[in-house]
Amino acid sequence: MRYRLGVDVGGTFTDVLLLEETSGSTFRAKTPSTPADQSVGVLNGVTKVCTDAGIDPGQIDQVLHGTTVATNAILQGRGARVGLVTTDGFRQVLQIARSFVPGGLAGWIIWPKPEPLAKLEHTVQVVGRIGADGGEITPLDEQQTRAELRKLKGADVEAITVSLINSYANSAHEEQVGRWVAEELPDIPISLSSHVLPEMREYERTLTTVANSYVQPEVSRYVRNLDSSLKEKGINAPLSILRSDGGLVQAGKAAEDPVSLLLSGPAGGVTGAVWFAQQAGYSDFLTFDMGGTSTDVALVLDGQPRIGRETKVGDLAVRATSVDVRTVGAGGGSVAHVPELTKALRVGPQSAGADPGPAAYGNGGTEPTVTDANVVLGYLPSDLAGGEVTLDVDAARTAVATISDAMGLDSPEAAASGVIDIVNENMFGALRLVSVQQGYDPRDFALVSFGGAGPLHANALGRLTGAWPVIIPPSPGVLCAYGDATTCLRAESARTLVRAFNELDSGELRSVISDLAEVATERLETEGVPRAEQTATYQVDLRYHGQGFEIPVDLDPDVLTAGGDLLAELGTAFDTEHKRLFSFLLKNEREVINLRVTVSGPRPEVAWTELDQGSEDPSAALLNSSQVWMDGAHTTAGIYDRAKLLAGNVITGPAIVTEMDSTTLVLSGHAATVDPSGSLIIRPV
């Protein structure tokens, strides 16, 4: 038997899933996260899941890990002290940045401009210049460059970024400076912009590479510590890390290119959602992942998650390929409060986190949270995570009562209902960002919900969006770990080629794409994936001449290999996408800007599980009933054990379905049908 171990570390819980490939059987564990050292929580989960499965940790064949280490380093401002090397005259590239201020009119008055990740005093300039055509204009001055590098050595920088003008067209100067850096500042990690992001636009390329340097020492330490800790437990299996685009990369490579991991955690959930939605027969759906700290949403079209070219974490937006995930500060731990000035109820983005957590956890938390509101309404059972967490109902009511007192409401239930309504509207706004604002009608999609808190709110989000059915996969609280365990290795190669259509022919374009494909293929081959098992996808960034932005367009592999007119195909695809996004077309000449090739290995051959067939009657799984507050009054809801449900069972709301890692709420006027794949399919009655 072959075992794959999926691990996902969240802000509140660490999820571990052990998957046996032949049978598809799974064992899962959910343990509290350990922010001070995430590997501690991971090892706690590994110990628990191996004990439950009755196997020795040494029997694990692969460890697949989605991590938030890089994300947290950015959000918490605890990355490395970065030294930046720029071309003479470009020292203030990060300070000048882009003329963009978030918010409405006059937002600049109250917006604190974030500090660059590389300080101006840690930025040096070198003499030497490459032209936009890749030709050398001014040779490098070795003596001057080494003198500048010694200044960085005196500043005790912990990582170095080299980002020189036009290095995307010719990387020779950057590579030479990199060699001098290695001599002058040995044992300090170096990031070259021509390797991290070989694309035009100096600011974006520099910012992305600096971000890579900023998180590199932290990620390297974590990967190294986790790998050694796993080996100490007898797990000698290779460790792979999930990239932001949903693919895997070996741990050593991940430590070299950590900027590609910024959305590692959320990408695992989208990958897992695809896995289960396909089993239930759905290929177009929205994903809704609600955890303890935040909610992540994405859109999947024809079984493929939409991929974006910008990764945003806090105030930082870098150019890195990632699943187009939008995040809002709404989770089970989101704190509800009533500002004294407005007396208007607010929920989040502040979170109680894992320590002390919601008041109901009994760990000293006193602030009312979304979890406390669900407890007061009766939507959560007294035990969570298979008995790992016991809820304190009285503490939850006391905390939520501070809201009802502040607003003059007649009961904690009324306040709790308001908290739930507001957090649902916040998450509805995030779903609109990936659907309506991208030109898609959410009513044309299903809604796949997961995360520890997602299934509690999924039915309400289906009602708000009109996205039916709502699908709750098996083990929704550890679905991100499931996604980690069922995805594949992936590599990417990119290049800038600024050329108008009338200056380019299909043969030249095909040749450049083939060269990029060869680079990505070789990269994946070195990670142990034979060429015969690799598949490639192609993407081209296009724009109208004169536009200041590009639109990524997918290129059909069949067109590439059939010898057809690539430019004609790309032009048609670009027009279709431009009209969908903006509802108009221009007569301007089209331009190619960037080319990208992504090569993937095979997905693991994991068996799909299928439930035994039953009737519509779910009474065999009924545990008991309980009073819940719904539609403004107390009513009785049946409580069902999900592990005892059979395919074809129909649960009519109001009802609560419990399992080890999550709780599903079925609202009145709705029913959940158990799919043979194990997913709950919720629709209005």
UniProtKB/TrEMBL annotation:
Bilayer-crossing residues are none
Q: Which domain of life is it from?
A: Bacteria
A GO CC term? cytosol
A Gene Ontology molecular function term for this protein is: 5-oxoprolinase (ATP-hydrolyzing) activity
The record, for Pfam families, names: Hydant_A_C, Hydant_A_N, Hydantoinase_A
The Hydantoinase/oxoprolinase N-terminal domain covers: 4-184
- Residue span(s) of domain Hydantoinase A/oxoprolinase: 205-491
Residue span, Acetophenone carboxylase-like C-terminal domain: 508-675
Annotated InterPro entries: ACX-like_C (IPR049517), ATPase_NBD (IPR043129), Hydant_A_N (IPR008040), Hydantoinase_A (IPR002821), Oxoprolinase-like (IPR045079)
Q: What biological processes does GO assign it?
A: glutathione metabolic process
Name under which the protein is recorded: Hydantoinase/oxoprolinase family protein
The organism encoding this protein is Williamsia herbipolensis
